[in-house]
Amino acid sequence: MMDQAIADFDVLMPVLGIGDVAPGIEARMRLHRLWLEKDPEAALARLAPRIRGVAATGHLAVVDAALMRRLPKLEIVASFGVGYDNIDAKWAGEHGIIVTNTPGVLDEEVADTAFGLLIATARQLPQAERYLREGRWLDAPFPLTPSLRGRKMGILGLGRIGKAIARRAVAFGLDVVYHGRRPQEGAPYLYYPTLLGMARACDILMVVAPGGDSTKNIVNRDVLEALGPNGILINVARGSLVDEEALIEALEKRTILGAGLDVFAREPDVPPRLLAVDNAVLLPHVGSASRPTRQAMADLVVANLYSWIDGKGPLTPVPETPWPRRT
Ligand code: NAP
Ligand code: 8YV
User: Fold this and answer.
1) Integer Cα distance of 40 and 63 in angstroms
2) The domain that contains 160 carries what CATH number?
3) Pocket test for ligand 2, best of 59, 99, 264, 294 (most atoms within 8 A of CB)
């Protein structure tokens, strides 16, 4: 294969990349790793006039209007991850800047993680494993646990990942219902127009809707109360959807049965009170974090940038920055 020339295209990577996107970008563009600069502020001031792309590291990189305003030649923000609540996509759309994310390539992986988290939470598998390692099995069998059997799963956000989770739930013999902003034509599950109504009707609440202002703390005290003492909350979406203080209280007072959480309000800080409860299973935001899936996400970030510099437009623009552009 012939080496391709480096395009006259400067890409800013504001924070450390957790996906392997750098080699692909550097093969055809100039990449600037802001977080490695001794004085990032001075480096940004120096680089800003020529930056045409930003490689955003998923939920870790805040790309707000303040940053984009400083980049007068910015054309595209290519984000590593499907959720883009960390990017002001509305502002970007209003200013002719394209935002891309990585939809589709991680659905099955995240659904696997969500389902693993659900089983681990209901059947207390991490607790049972700790029990064995601590040598306590020698004294007595592990206590009996709650069960998945006979449960109804309410999915908050029946999107790409939500549907992959629903398929698994059906295969496991669970009843599935959902809530979103509107009913979906052709979805074979009962729709609930309100989250509270759905929480009352189910005993597993699976949270997999986007983060951002419109969903902030929608899983609140009332919703947790409605889920009830046999209820299990699983959150693989964003910590911002759940009122974390109300959740901790519900777990401490056992007004819900348990929670399985892959995401938190202020990652990577997890509140000590959450670490202390024995009815929660906690993961360090690993929903998509397998080698092949992270590689597929990285490849899609790079493919979006290549397609852009080749004049073919973005591959996976977010709805706020449609392509072709609205006239
Ligand atoms: P998606 O296909 O866009 O689905 C999102 C769903 O949420 C849609 O069905 C949408 O339905 C619903 N929704 C949107 N806004 C809502 C609102 N205000 N209230 C209620 N429902 C709402 O997204 P996806 O690819 O499945 O990803 C979902 C989210 O999972 C991402 O945004 C990301 O934050 C998170 N995620 C986490 C991990 C992880 O590692 N833990 C990995 C990947 C993704 P309506 O439009 O009908 O409302
Ligand atoms: C990413 C995620 O790992 O896709 C998302 O929305 O939360 C995860 O898959 C993360 O954004 C990478 O920083």
Assistant:
1) 15
2) 3.40.50.720
3) 59
> Model confidence over 98-108: pLDDT tens digits?
999 999 999 99
Q: Is 219 helix (H, G, I), strand (E, B) or coil?
A: strand
Quote the pTM value.
0.97
Looking at the fold, whether 77 and 92 belong to one and the same domain comes out as yes
State the distance from the centre of ligand 2 to the C-alpha of 106, rounded, in angstroms: 9
SS3 178: strand
Termini Cα distance of the chain: 39
- pLDDT tens-place string over residues 219-249: 999 999 999 999 999 999 999 999 999 999 9
Domain of 251, in residue numbers: 107-282
Residue 324: inside a domain = no
Which ligand sits nearest to residue 208's alpha carbon?
1
Q: Give a yes or no: residue 203 inside a domain.
A: yes
CA angle 101, 183, 255 (to 5 degrees): 85
* Rounded distance from Cα 237 to ligand 1 centre (Å): 7
